[in-house]
Amino acid sequence: MISTKMSKEEAKEYASVPSAENAPAYSYGTCLCLDDELLKRLGFDEPPPVGTVLTLNAKVTVTSTGVNQQQDGDKEARCDMQITDMELTGEGPNAASVLYG
Hints:
The chain is an alpha+beta fold and 101 residues long.
């Protein structure tokens, strides 16, 4: 797997703050928010505690792509994806308990 964590220099530039210590470690586009209904479908009766490490396996469909060019010549690419199937593993519930109680 490839880490999405930004370097201190990238984080400082991304956040436009004077110190990399105050900058976020990951960019906004790497955040995924699961609602109550989806958590239940994934086998969670309640959200896992903050700091819990889980493994996300997902299948996605690319829904949009684009490249924007700025007046100074800088280009910025983007790729939007829709998660169509996913699974969480790790410290959450195990498959046997979800399937068989």
